């Protein structure tokens, strides 16, 4: 059984305290071990990043981009192997994992544009014979804390821009599926990234707290639950760090009366149950306007019943297991509690088992109707393949549901009516919205950013990260030979 190392100063590092198993969610069998970092490992990772910062920040932008271009190609050349690592440790299907690697490569490709995107500005004659300009400086050692559900993509959304901007990076991935992160570090080294620019440490809460509190880390990015996101944001801000954190979601899809129900049913099936519902942008609530709820429920039940649940590496699997036994038990309990509280199970495959994988952490697609807005099944992020279908009379009612929910990550509408789509665009209380697009994650040239309890901080990932990972300096200069004393504070 392989051992997954830390990655410090351009080389694997074996050390730490408690050693835990990395488990295949389809079989409940350990496939690797990983050691949790001790204070010495954290210190050595930060020290390596700090030592590399001077040289890397002084490296010309074009040379940084050349490294990232080579790395992008290596990511795509090794996509199949990287996807297999993700599937083995996370459980998602191989096709889904390959899509994650492609999205990660998109983020790297964006970062390759650093020479054109990391620019300040100049104003000539901002005063009498005075010019003013702004320049962008890297911050120093940046920290990224990423979740299990996208072990490669989330890290690249952070690290690619941070590194392109001249920073060095310490990455703390989820201990549940850390293998692909170390392989990515190896590929970056192969692409020519200097030792120490990217470092990886494995650990739990104490490792995160140590990285936040470390006096030489300058910025913290985090993706996880809203509870932890708020805690990380508060602690990092109190420690004087630049910080952005991204939390939970309860993404709504509004279905208007004029929508094509076959298209909607297909899109909801994919968006709700894909990756076993373990996506930050999964649709977990369908809000049906008007009288089409029952026909849509019939179509959803038919499609959800046909979804093939199985091990992610098995051919034909459409939905793999959830990431852990604890997640499986939590989701099953939430479905049971919702039904006990009065919800109607249109289709309940939550306790389904997969032949040949009796110990796997499987939860089948489940559709619930008549769920009270006050219930936890509607209010909380279940992070599993469970879709709640809610009925309302008007678009205004549907928009009010989105407005009043604590989360505001994503929302979408399916309609053929331009006026309804425009009103939705204006009023939907979410950071990412889609019109006839179920999962409206923007391309890398835009930003990933939620509202309300889905995000803390005023920046986002991908293209919005340039401002997060740099700090501006304003230079005012004058080169004439004017002399004289003037004690007034005068306008330009």
Describe this structure in words.
The chain folds into two domains: 2-247 and 454-475, Aldehyde Dehydrogenase, Chain A, domain 1 (3-Layer(aba) Sandwich), CATH 3.40.605; 251-435, 3-Layer(aba) Sandwich (Aldehyde Dehydrogenase, Chain A, domain 2), CATH 3.40.309.10. Helices cover 38% and strands 24% of the residues. The protein has 16 helices and 25 strands. The strands form seven sheets. Strands 15-16-17-14-13-19-20 form a seven-stranded mixed beta sheet, with helices on both faces. α10 packs across α11. The relative contact order is 0.14. The mean pLDDT is 96.
Topology:
Elements: E1 2-4, E2 6-8, E3 11-13, E4 19-24, E5 29-35, H1 39-57, H2 61-77, H3 79-90, H4 94-111, H5 114-117, E6 121-127, E7 130-138, E8 141-145, H6 153-164, E9 168-172, H7 179-190, E10 198-200, H8 205-213, E11 217-223, H9 226-238, E12 242-246, E13 251-255, H10 261-273, E14 283-289, H11 293-306, H12 325-340, E15 344-348, E16 366-369, H13 376-379, E17 386-392, H14 395-404, E18 407-408, E19 410-414, H15 418-427, E20 432-435, E21 447-448, E22 451-452, E23 455-456, E24 461-462, H16 465-468, E25 470-478
């Amino acid at each position: 059984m392989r051992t997954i190392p830390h990655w410090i100063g351009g080389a694997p590092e074996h050390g730490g305290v408690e050693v835990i198993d990395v488990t295949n969610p389809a079989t409940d069998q350990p496939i690797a071990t990983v050691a949790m970092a001790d204070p010495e490992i954290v210190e050595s990772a930060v020290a390596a990043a700090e030592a590399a910062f001077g040289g890397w920040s002084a490296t010309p932008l074009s040379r940084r981009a050349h490294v990232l271009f080579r790395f992008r190609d290596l990511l795509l050349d090794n996509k199949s192997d990287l996807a297999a690592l993700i599937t083995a440790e996370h459980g998602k299907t191989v096709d889904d994992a390959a899509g994650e690697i492609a999205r990660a490569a998109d983020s790297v490709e964006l970062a390759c544009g650093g020479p054109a995107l990391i620019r300040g500005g100049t104003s000539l004659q901002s005063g009498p014979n005075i010019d003013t300009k702004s320049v962008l400086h890297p911050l120093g050692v940046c920290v990224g804390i990423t979740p299990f559900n996208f072990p490669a993509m989330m890290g690249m959304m952070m690290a690619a821009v941070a590194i392109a901007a001249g920073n060095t990076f310490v990455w703390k991935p989820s201990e549940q599926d850390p293998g692909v992160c170390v392989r990515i570090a190896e590929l970056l080294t192969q692409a020519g990234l200097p030792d120490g620019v990217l470092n990886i440490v494995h650990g739990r809460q104490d490792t995160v707290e140590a990285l936040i509190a470390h006096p030489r880390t300058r910025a913290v990015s985090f993706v996880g639950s809203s509870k932890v996101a708020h805690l990380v944001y508060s602690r990092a801000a109190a420690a004087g760090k630049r910080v952005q954190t991204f939390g939970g979601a309860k993404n709504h899809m509004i279905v208007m009366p004029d929508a094509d129900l076959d298209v909607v049913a297909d899109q909801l099936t994919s968006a709700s149950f894909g990756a076993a519902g373990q996506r930050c942008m999964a649709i977990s609530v369908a809000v049906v306007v008007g009288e089409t709820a029952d026909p849509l429920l019939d179509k959803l039940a038919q499609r959800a019943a046909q979804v093939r649940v199985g091990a992610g590496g098995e051919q034909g699997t459409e939905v793999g297991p959830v990431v852990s036994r604890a997640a499986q038990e939590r989701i099953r309990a939430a479905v049971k509690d919702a039904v006990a509280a009065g919800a109607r199970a249109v289709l309940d495959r939550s306790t389904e088992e997969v032949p040949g994988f009796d110990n796997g952490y499987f939860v089948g697609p489940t559709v619930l109707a008549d769920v009270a807005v006050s219930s936890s099944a509607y209010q909380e992020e279940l992070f599993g393949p469970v879709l709640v279908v809610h009925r309302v009379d008007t678009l205004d009612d549907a928009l009010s549901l989105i407005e009043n929910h604590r989360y505001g990550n994503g929302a979408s509408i399916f309609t053929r009516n331009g006026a309804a789509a425009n009103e939705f665009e204006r009023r939907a209380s979410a950071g990412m919205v889609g019109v006839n697009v179920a999962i409206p994650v923007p391309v890398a040239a835009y930003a990933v950013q939620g509202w309300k309890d889905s995000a803390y901080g005023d920046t986002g990932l991908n293209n919005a990260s340039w401002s997060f990972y740099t700090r501006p300096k304003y230079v005012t200069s004058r080169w004439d030979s004017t002399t004289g004393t003037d004690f007034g504070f005068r306008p330009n």
